[in-house]
Amino acid sequence: MVKTIEWVNGKVRMIDQSRLPREVKYIDCTDYEMVAEGIKKLWIRGAPAIGIAAAMGIALGAQEIKANNFNDLMKGLNHVFQTLLLTRPTAVNIQWAVERIKLFLTERKDQTVDKLKALLIEESLKILQEDIEINKAIGRWGAQFIKDGDTVITHCNAGSLATGGYGTATAPIRVAVEQGKKIQVIADETRPVLQGCRLTAWELMEDNIPVTLITDNTAGALLRKGEINLAIVGTDRTVANGDVANKIGTYSLAVLCKENGVPFYVAAPLSSIDFSIPNGELIPIEERGSEEVTHIFECHIAPEGVKVRNLAFDVTPAKYITGIITEKGVFRPEDLHKLNEKDVDLSAFMLKAT
Ligand code: MRU
Known about the structure:
This protein is an alpha/beta fold. It folds into two domains: 5-135, Up-down Bundle (Four Helix Bundle (Hemerythrin (Met), subunit A)), CATH 1.20.120.420; 141-349, Rossmann fold (3-Layer(aba) Sandwich). The chain has ten helices and 16 strands. The strands form four sheets. The chain has a seven-stranded mixed β-sheet with strand order 6-5-4-7-10-15-16. The protein is globular. Bound molecules: 5-S-methyl-1-O-phosphono-5-thio-D-ribulose (MRU). 5-S-methyl-1-O-phosphono-5-thio-D-ribulose binds next to helix 2 and strand 9.
């Protein structure tokens, strides 16, 4: 399985996803500004992966700060936090990583600055390892909904490349394959950046998982023909009422699934769930440059000067979602908030395959 991000000899190494699969190239980020640039330019993308990159970027940024005490270190880090937080607004994982690191440091404020700098590297590696384990748990919970012979549709890339490894939406697929189920995956190409075409199809083929690539607007026709049994997608931010922000086009796919009686699941690690936001209307949606729409790679395909809207994400209302697959179990969107409550017997709210 391809490695998305690593810490190598004091640098953050990421596979350049903007070039895949035409070119397999790794970039070594030498400072936190370069990590932030990589997140903005989509060298690394996918909510959990950019959360991990942020944690590693903070560790990298800390090494350069000249401070004699905890307070000065935190002052220096403040700029690093802000730079990373401003890269991409929709995925909550960068915020999640910044909050986790702030708490981590505050709980260790009596340690020396040198010790804290070393601990930050360890903590970012821990976040990476934990992410892979979380994805495997998502896979175990989610695989129960995939039957032998099923065809599963996914949108964008919520696979290994979007995470520390194993993927979120691809995790139940991987576990189902490991269980010996014969399944097929349909990958939406995912205009305009083509994550489904360039990344999902590529990584599944690398791992010998049968995948068929379609244009986004083919999904409805195949759903209507009964050729698709279920959908599993990832999320950039899922909020308290179970509304889900994910790659643009997810909403359309969810509506089409509902219309055709096909279950629609969202794979959501807790790091992508934002209980502080009550509903999807309040999720900040990133709008990206027009050239992603007017060009395919270097080739200009649109009329010169045409007006463009390029929303990178949309919000799927909870009513279209069958279940949210987390590392703690699978829940109906309306029960998701139970995960944020104390002393709740979660097993009483878990969705089980029938
Ligand atoms: O713009 P991207 O490529 O970062 O968008 C990625 C997605 O929308 C993914 O589905 C989401 O981040 C979940 S990744 C496990």
